[in-house]
Amino acid sequence: MLATLVLSLEAEAGMDVILVGSSELSAPPSPKLGRDLIAYEVKVNQRNIEDICLCCGSFQVHTQHPLFEGGMCTSCKDKFLGALFLYDDDGYLSYCSICCSGETLLICENPDCTRCYCFECVDTLVSPGTSEKVQAMSNWVCFLCLPFSRSGLLRRRRKWRARLKAFCDRESESPLEMYKTVPVWKREPVRVLSLFGDIKRELTSLGFLGTSCGPGRLKHLDDVTNVVRRDVEEWGPFDLVYGSTPPLGHTCYHPPGWYLFQFHRLLQYARPPPGSPRPFFWMFVDNLVLGTDDQATATRFLETEPVTIQDLSGRALQDAVHVWSNVPAVRSKHAALGPQEELSLLVQDRQRMGPYSQSSGPARLVKSCFLPLREYFKYFSTELSSSL
Ligand SMILES: [Zn+2]
Ligand SMILES: [Zn+2]
Ligand SMILES: [Zn+2]
């Protein structure tokens, strides 16, 4: 912690020197197009940075950047919303936290942070050459984690978590309300209720259910016929309710629609009261055994459209699931569809044979969908990259 802080302060000092003393930044010689213009416009032309898109340099500002002082144009806003909670398999956000693109990314080394920044943003908004300096540092923490809010032109907004939530609620077309992300020191272990399908292995390998430092807990139920509201309230409170149609190879005594109805029933018992700010997530996964009518019912009851998540290893469709969920980014991550005909064949197969044929769990396919929960709950060190 101390080492981080010292380095950060050094970084700040270094940046301040560049900011104040460098003639390069205070009077850029000949502004080129695009983002190189930002420093020139702000420093020389005294343009307010809120009137420039921080992501692309455009003057056609649509809204404010939720994390840093500066504007945002319409197309960058769309890109930002789409990539907001997209995680790579290594557990880091896939895109730059400022511009939501970027090929080469600098990774925040605060173990509780998952953010990345592209070279271009850091070099144009902090100061030229900063990306190189950051790379040379052994322990760099990012602009949202640093104790001070200002690095060159980059200024962290006050109350950025609340602003991010407001930004998503306002700008997003999805009807799901977003929860405010939780600061690291306030994150608690996650409490999970999992119905029918079990996600213990997936959550453990992502670090949500550790064995040391106060692990999250998971209650798994296969038969919920006699479960009443009082039971769920006694076992709870829960932060995540997961349910799925039975994994293939499981014996099951109910028609596929039964799992949906039971999931929906218990979900109502587990929900925090309306208007509660407590982050509460749910996910229902169908192994492609629900018929078209049941799927439509699920969409109506769960008040969200499903996404299809496919396992395309070996370029052939191996497996797929339909997912209804309010976990951020489930939708954007899997919006792109693979081969439709193959999927419908798989659906026919699955529905003909029922969920009894092979042995495979739907949970495996949705594992990476749980990564955004790291913004809300405590997690512990993992062997993430090897296990995904
Ligand atoms: Zn833009
Ligand atoms: Zn960037
Ligand atoms: Zn960070």
From TrEMBL:
Predominant place of localization: nucleus
Domain PHD-type: 41-173
InterPro entries to which the protein is assigned, alphabetical: ADD, C5-Methyltransferase, DNMT3_ADD_GATA1-like, DNMT3_ADD_PHD, SAM-dependent_MTases_sf, Znf_FYVE_PHD, Znf_RING/FYVE/PHD
Keywords: Metal-binding, Nucleus, Zinc, Zinc-finger
Cellular component aspect of the GO annotation: condensed nuclear chromosome; cytoplasm; ESC/E(Z) complex; heterochromatin
GO molecular function list: enzyme activator activity; enzyme binding; zinc ion binding
Domain of life of the organism encoding this protein: Eukaryota
Name the UniProt record assigns to this protein: DNA methyltransferase 3 like
Native organism: Otolemur garnettii (Small-eared galago)
Gene name of this polypeptide: DNMT3L
